Amino acid sequence: MGExxxxxxxxxxxDLADRVRAAVRxxxxxxxxxxxxxxREDLLRLxxxxxxxxxxxxxxxxxxxDVELARLSRAHGVHLGQEDGPLAxxxxxxxxxAVVGRSVGSAEEAVEAVREGADYLGVGTIYATPTKPEExxxxxxxxxxxxxxxxxxxxxxxxxxxxETAREAAAAGAYGFAVVRAVLDADDPASAARELRSILDASxxx
Length: 206
Fold this sequence. Notes:
By secondary structure, this protein is of the alpha/beta class. The chain is built from nine helices and eight strands. It is globular.
């Protein structure tokens, strides 16, 4: 995952590839494909297209939850939730150079994920979000708890990160942001990405 700090998580929309292309131009340095409803054929086609977009911009491309799709599309890695099985199984399927991320909702889960070999973490749901309406928000205090761990892997505040909440999240200690609508719903995704990057760059934690 390197020095990535701005992760774009996708949602289904017809102009997704164009918006991702603009986002990586604006400073998104990692993209995660998340689509729970598309057919396997459509997902594979989209994954391959987004991988090419990311590789052309020097950004990382991962797939949410689906190790087999990551393998078939030659994604750079996969992101797994708490219920998605051991990281070692994903790494065995994708190879030793694959990037494997884990969702965590507490400092304890963060420590365990790093111990298990996670290359990066998604931390939260920090704020309430329509993307996952069933999830109770953890609040920005969780970011400070995770920041105090001094983790050796990148980690991203996720859940309701917008241009309005990003400064509070950064001040609370977020290493990076994982965003959906803040970039994809913007009239100018590149400009939205640049603004989020500027907030991160101005924060006290590198």
